[in-house]
Amino acid sequence: MTEIRVLTDEAQCRAHHGLFRRAMHWSPAEDDKWEIIRQTYEPGRTHAAFEGDEMVGTTQTFGCSMVVPGGAVVPHAAVSRVGVRADYTRRGVLSALMREQLSTLSEPVATLRASEGRIYGRFGYGLAGRVRFLRIDARKAVIPGSPVGRVRMVDPDTSDKLLPELHTAIGLDRPGQISRWPGWWAIHQERKGAAENLVTVVHSGPDGDDGFVSYKVSEDKDFKHTMEIEDFAWANADAWRDLWIYLTRLDLVDEIHVDAALDDPLNWLFEDPRVVYTKDVYDQIWLRLVDVPRMLTARTYGVAEPVVIEVRDELLPANDGCYRVSPDGAERVEGPADITISVELLGAVYLGDTKFSDLAAAKRIEGSRFDEADALFAVPVAPLCSTFF
Ligand SMILES: CC(=O)SCCNC(=O)CCNC(=O)[C@H](O)C(C)(C)COP(=O)(O)OP(=O)(O)OC[C@H]1O[C@@H](n2cnc3c(N)ncnc32)[C@H](O)[C@@H]1OP(=O)(O)O
């Protein structure tokens, strides 16, 4: 029988990490890497599945906060390192891990990045945010005008001190953005070493530092140079534009790759909008409403007549019930409901990436008054989570 345990000692956490990496077809971390990775194992947040004495499955959370529509910041669990040993798959190991993890979470919301699209819906995670992968032709990318602020290159020691504070100040700018935990920064900082050669520049305007970008440039056998933008945050349009001027005027860069929000206005920066090419749109945020009443009251709503939504949650039945959503907020009520929706799909509409009317058109939800529900849940900016975990 599968038993789920919370891991406490380091040797087991290392085995957990190795099992997850093996499930992803990656080799285990070397000793020097483990010294950094061990900092990402927070007490009480690591679950493993055991068959007898053998560890056969893993999952873990990182504690942080997430921005919801309207700007409130709520406690959030970032779920990661999900893996089941290949000789134990499709026997319910992941299901047991997910049930235990969900029932013990203290945060009202959890998100994850899914390796495959069919895994997590059954556990109540909905596809709540997508991202555009952009390719920019750096040789033709001309931004008219001059920078208005100052961009400076910072050495690794300086950026290690500066970036966590700066990200806290400016990084929580959209629904879906999350704060970063010490272990996240430990791994990011290690990447500035020789192996990955990540470079950071910081922008300052009239009120001080207000933007940063971390990037690396690699060269292929044909001497083509490609820049990968790994981390990018800005507090205002001047910082955003100045940092792009810096990036597109760098020598020896042919192409730039970056992930951007669906509504990022990057094309409009350039004389020729076609230098920005959307190579892909992919799912990014999979969101699980753990405490539906709390999460429905945490966000704000648009202007429309109130709608009553009935939520169904097989794994966490405390969420079952009807909620009246209006421009003034949300509250539990008795029925009748206008719309019936699973907790998975409520997660999909929660940040505003998906509309009720789209789910109705796809025959995924039932009811009426979808236009009013769309207007209530609409958000002025697309969700994004710039923090990979
Ligand atoms: C947040 C992250 O860390 S993402 C990384 C996720 N990890 C990986 O992709 C690593 C490789 N894969 C694995 O380790 C495992 O196959 C897992 C974790 C995806 C699934 O673990 P399992 O123990 O096999 O899942 P479990 O047996 O509980 O399956 C539950 C249900 O999901 C289905 N399912 C599980 N994995 C998949 C999949 N990859 N594709 C489609 N269906 C799946 C099962 O068929 C089962 O359906 P059923 O209830 O209708 O029978």
UniProtKB/TrEMBL annotation:
InterPro entries to which the protein is assigned, alphabetical: Acetyltransf_17, Acetyltransferase_Eis, Acyl_CoA_acyltransferase, Eis_dom, GNAT_dom, NAcTrfase_Eis, SCP2_sterol-bd_dom_sf
EC numbers, comma separated: 2.3.1.-
Entries under SUPFAM superfamilies matching the protein: Acyl-CoA N-acyltransferases (Nat), SCP-like
Domain of life: Bacteria
Residue intervals of the N-acetyltransferase domain: 2-149
Protein keywords: Acyltransferase, Transferase
Record: active site: 120 (proton donor), 389 (proton acceptor)
Enzyme class per UniProt: transferase
MF terms in GO: acyltransferase activity
Binding site for acetyl-CoA: 82-84, 90-95, 115-116
Assembly: Homohexamer; trimer of dimers.
Sequence similarity: Belongs to the acetyltransferase Eis family.
The protein's name in its UniProt record: GNAT family N-acetyltransferase
Lineage of source species: Bacteria, Bacillati, Actinomycetota, Actinomycetes, Pseudonocardiales
